[in-house]
Design goal:
The chain has 495 residues and is of the alpha+beta class. It is 31% helix and 23% strand. Among the domains are: 152 residues, D-Amino Acid Oxidase, Chain A, domain 2, CATH 3.30.9.10; 108 residues. The strands form 6 sheets. Strands 9-2-1-13-21-20 form a 6-stranded mixed beta sheet. The structure holds flavin-adenine dinucleotide.
Length: 495
């Protein structure tokens, strides 16, 4: 008989766990997410770095230190298997004054203890060879070539698509409201859509993991949000070749200057602790953004004029009591596993976290995991019009004329891309049609005009494919419907 596993939270942690558990014949895996789509929690807004694993102190934060480097190594494999947008461009932790080298030496030594390969301190000449446009005040750096960047939401989507292809069942738009425990053993989860039976419950609920743990009677930790704010620039603004960090402080890795995977210069984040109840406070602040600007200028003085900014945004790190990841089978509730406090470097560590959880299920819960004889590690990336050669465009249009209609002019996203995105949304169980779901799969609406031109057309396509009235399409889930009735401007446009 199969053991039933319920994973709460389809962020990068829950998705990775689902993928790894989908390898086993004797598990029936359910991935439960309260948002209408996957990856809309902490995993949505972050720096998107695959960290090198040199800055987590193995004495203070042993789990982070162990899983970050392991996760980095696994990402090198996962991005290929799952065709996740990525770049391996390395990081420079920049010294601006002589004292900074003491900290860089400490990081180098810590990196060696954590098993980080190929790191070294470079002098002024080499630093400018690696990053020609860095501030002229730089006097050297720690060079970490294994650092990279991924698209975090595309990564969650890719992982979930692969997990579903391998048999995982999703329950999107489903909020866990209780954990059923009988005689000290978990029996399942209560949700707004009914009861889901489970022998194993994995709590990967990000900022809300402490609340879920309390539902199982576990209250030894709390999660408080730590805000980080960012500026994102238009893609014609030149950014650095490498990920640039300042020499870090005790609470933050510092303001990063980077060219993210889609080619936009991005600066941030700062670090501002918020009270535990402010888990939805994603507002940017003038003061925070100005701090980020000033911090970034120290490494990249040629920041462009503010007219080149296309977005500012904020993310919330789920900071746990004690600071380390909490990945643990809880004895008080047999079958309940916490994957909590997954703050930075959680994105990097996620694949390693998933194998850690599989190990806990096998060793500590005594479920002997049997590998499937057939398990598919691969998933194909959506066919982006903007990445096609002219020959591929011709082929695509012959196959489906919708590829010949450009919907998002800023990013060259065709109707064919959008229809494929909608098909993939349905494949993983997205029931609420949202513009954001299309945006995260295709990049439509993320260009210079930020959707002013293409949003109505996307709404029309979503309405048609989901057979709902256009005004019932949402921007980002229930409560953000685009209208309250017959929205004539949408209806009048050509389909
Ligand atoms: C500013 C910032 C910068 C960062 N930079 C980096 C970086 O560069 N590199 C790196 O490695 N890490 C970074 N991180 C950390 C990384 O983003 C997180 O560790 C990671 O995204 C956490 O993923 P998760 O799946 O654990 O949580 P989440 O992505 O939040 O997923 C949890 C999910 O659980 C769902 N959920 C919650 N409650 C319920 C419920 N009751 N029922 C059903 N579902 C529920 C939520 O909706 C959510 O989708 C950064 C974080 C921030 C905020």
């Amino acid at each position: 008989m199969k053991a039933k596993v319920a994973i709460i939270g389809a962020g990068i942690s829950g998705a990775s766990i689902a993928r790894v558990l989908s390898r086993y014949e004797n598990l029936e895996v359910h991935l439960i997410e309260k948002a209408p789509d996957v990856g809309w929690g902490v995993s949505k807004a972050n720096t998107a770095l695959i960290h090198g694993g040199y800055d987590d102190d193995p004495e203070r934060y042993p789990t982070r230190a162990k899983l970050c480097i392991k996760g980095n190594r696994l990402w090198h494999q996962w991005v290929k298997e799952l065709e996740i947008p990525h770049v391996w461009n390395g990081a420079l932790i920049v010294a601006l004054k002589d004292e900074d080298f003491e900290e860089l030496e400490r990081l180098l030594e810590r990196g060696h203890r954590n098993g980080v390969p190929e790191m070294r301190i470079v002098d002024k000449d080499e630093v400018f060879h690696l990053e020609p446009n860095l501030t002229r005040k730089a006097i050297g750096a720690l060079w970490v070539p294994i650092v990279g960047q991924i698209g975090p939401i595309p990564a969650v989507i890719a992982i979930v698509e692969n997990a579903v292809a391998n048999g995982v069942k999703t329950h999107l738009g489903t909020e866990v409201v209780g954990i059923k425990i009988e005689n000290g053993e978990v029996k399942g989860v209560e949700t707004n859509n009914g009861f889901i039976e489970a022998d194993v419950v994995i709590n990967a609920a990000g900022l809300h993991a402490d609340e879920i743990a309390k539902m199982a009677g576990i209250d030894y930790f709390e999660i408080h949000p730590r805000k980080g704010e960012y500026w994102l620039f238009d893609d014609d603004v030149p950014g650095p070749r490498r990920v640039l960090f300042p020499t870090p402080t005790p609470i933050s890795k510092g303001i990063v200057v980077t060219t993210e995977v889609s080619g936009h210069l991005m600066i941030g984040p700062n670090a501002q602790d918020l009270p535990p109840k402010e888990k939805e406070n994603l507002a940017t602040t003038r003061e925070g953004l100005e701090n980020v600007w000033e911090g970034a200028k120290k490494l990249w003085p040629q920041l462009p004029p503010r007219s080149k900014v296309i977005r500012t945004f904020a993310g919330l790190r789920p900071e746990p009591t004690g600071g380390d990841f909490i990945i643990k089978a809880e004895e008080e509730a047999w079958g309940f596993i916490n994957v909590a406090g997954i703050r930075s470097p959680g994105l990097t560590s996620a694949p390693a976290i998933a194998y850690e959880v599989a190990g806990i299920i096998q060793r500590e819960l005594g479920i002997n995991l049997e590998k499937k004889s057939k398990w598919n590690p691969y998933r194909r990336e959506i066919s982006h019009f903007f990445m096609m050669t002219p020959e591929q465009v011709n082929e695509a249009i012959k196959r489906n004329p919708a590829y010949g209609k450009i919907v998002c002019r800023c990013n060259n996203v065709s109707e064919g891309d959008i229809l494929e995105a909608i098909e993939r949304m349905k494949f993983i169980g997205v029931k609420t049609p949202s513009v954001d779901s299309v945006k995260f799969r295709t990049k439509a609406t993320t260009g210079t005009c930020q959707g002013s031109f293409c949003r109505p057309k996307i709404i029309q396509l979503l309405a048609r494919e989901y057979s709902v009235e256009p005004w019932k399409v949402t921007l980002k889930g229930m409560g953000s419907e685009v209208g309250i009735g017959d929205v004539k401007s949408i209806l009048r446009r050509d389909a």
